[in-house]
Amino acid sequence: MAFMQWSGRLSVGIEVIDDQHKKLVSIVNRLYDAMKRGKGNDILSGILSELIEYTNYHFTTEETLMRDNAYPGYQAHKSSHSMLVEKVMDLDLDLKAGKFALSVQVFNFLKDWLVNHIQREDKKYAPFLTKATVK
Q1: pLDDT above 90 covers what percent of the chain?
Q2: Burial 79-106 (b: 16+ CB within 10 A, else e)
Q3: pLDDT at res. 1
Q4: Domain-located, residue 71
Q5: pLDDT tens for residues 107-118?
Q6: HSE-up of 124 (CA within 13 Å, CB side)?
Q7: DSSP string spanning the chain?
Q8: How many domains, in total, are found in the chain?
Q9: 6 within some domain
Q10: Non-local CB neighbours of 69 within 8 Å, separated by 6+ positions
Q11: Is there a domain that residue 7 lies in?
């Protein structure tokens, strides 16, 4: 059984965004599974690379939808995305510097950020974009 289960509490009701969030949940679950097997640090570099690449793709999707539909919270949301990217880059530097037990730190950060960001930040724009006919 996966650590994080996709549920309605994580859905923003916009299919393309929900599908991308499911991918992010999948990345967190893969890290958790590896940690359970004692292999978290073995896959961490690949997870961070994938996360950097995928979040860029995902954030571009969200930000484009918000900008194209004149979402009033666009700048604040974009800033939140920028903070995550900076944090992931810092974690990547820590990994390259050889810090230990980093997989636990990354896992906890990703899990908490993902759930909190979706439930607090993404759910703010969802009604606005849905009303603007984004499905």
Answers
A1: 39
A2: ebbeebeeebeebbeebeeeeeebbeeb
A3: 66
A4: yes
A5: 788 888 888 889
A6: 12
A7: --SS---GGG--S-HHHHHHHHHHHHHHHHHHHHHHTT-HHHHHHHHHHHHHHHHHHHHHHHHHHHHHTT-TTHHHHHHHHHHHHHHHHHHHHHHHTT-SSHHHHHHHHHHHHHHHIIIIIIHHHHHHHHHTT--
A8: 1
A9: no
A10: 128, 129, 132, 134
A11: no
Residue 123 placed within a domain: yes
Domain of 29, CATH number, reads 1.20.120.50
Q: 134: number of CA atoms within 13 Å, CB side?
A: 25
Domain span at residue 28 reads 13-131
Q: Contact 85/52 with Cβ under 8 angstroms?
A: yes
Tens of pLDDT, residue by residue over 6-48, are 888 999 999 999 999 999 999 888 888 888 888 877 787 788 7
